[in-house]
Structures are given as C-alpha cells and as structure tokens.
Amino acid sequence: MVDEKPRLEIEYCVQCRWLTRAAWMAQELLTTFETELGEVALVPGTGGVFEVRLNGEAVWSRKSDAAFTDAAELKRLIRDWIAPGRPLGHSDQSS
Predict the structure, then answer these.
(1) How far is residue 39's CA from residue 43's CA, in Å, rounded to a whole number?
(2) What's the pLDDT score for residue 55?
(3) What is the largest CA-CA distance in the chain?
(4) What's the burial of 16, exposed, middle or buried (CB within 10 Å: 0-12/13-18/19+)?
(5) Distance (Å, rounded) from C-alpha 45 to C-alpha 51?
(6) What is the reported pLDDT for 2?
(7) Average pLDDT value for residue range 75-82
(8) DSSP states of the chain
(9) What is the pLDDT of residue 90?
(10) Neighbour-count burial for 55-85, b at 16+ CB within 10 Å, e otherwise
(11) How far apart are CA 12 and CA 2, in angstroms?
C-alpha cells in the first residue's frame, strides 16, 4: 500500500471575505510543504470560521484562538504533524 500524502483544508468565512487570506495561507503552506502535502483545499464556510485541518483533524482554529495566527506559527504546527523535526529556516526562529 502506498502512503498517501495528507489533505490540508482551509475553511474560511465567505461572509467575512476571508478568501484572500485563505488563498495566501494555502500558497504559503504549499510552497513550504510542496513534497509533503497531497493537496490543499479551500472550503467556503460562514459564521466567522477560519480553520485549518489535516485529514479532517483541526490543526488550528480562529474560534479557539480568538485571533488569527501568523504564517510562521501555522507552518510550525503543520510541520509538527507531517514532518516532525524538519527545519523550517527563519520560521523556526523565535520573535
């Protein structure tokens, strides 16, 4: 059996007009994890949702954090799920 690469979903609120933010985040994650991710899907939602999921499991949610995270933090979270120990260069550096 061939190991399938994970599916990343970014669900964003269409009412809040967060498509641009979701598309930018998708681009950042695809650029960083171009060989580790199988696909990235943008999922329209409502009610202020902005959630990132790997294979259906929430990695990060605006609802639980009450604010947006930056790309570097999201990259670290994704890395910890799909490529633990992999260096991320400047994204690994503390502020």
Answers:
(1) 13
(2) 95
(3) 42
(4) middle
(5) 10
(6) 56
(7) 92
(8) -PPPPPEEEEEEETTTT-HHHHHHHHHHHHHHTTTT-SEEEEEEE-TT-EEEEETTEEEEEHHHHSSPPPHHHHHHHHHHHHSTT---GGGGS--
(9) 60
(10) eeeebbebeeeeeebeebebbeebbeebeee
(11) 31
Mean pLDDT of 5-28: 97
Residue 48 near residue 62 (C-beta atoms within 8 A) = yes
Specify whether the CB–CB gap between 44 and 15 falls below 8 A.
Answer: no
Instruction: Please report where in the chains the tokens 């650029």 appear, as a residue.
Output: 31
Give me the half-sphere count of Cα atoms (radius 13 Å) on the Cβ side of residue 71. Answer: 16
pLDDT in tens, 26-75: 999 999 999 999 999 999 999 999 999 999 999 999 988 777 888 899 99
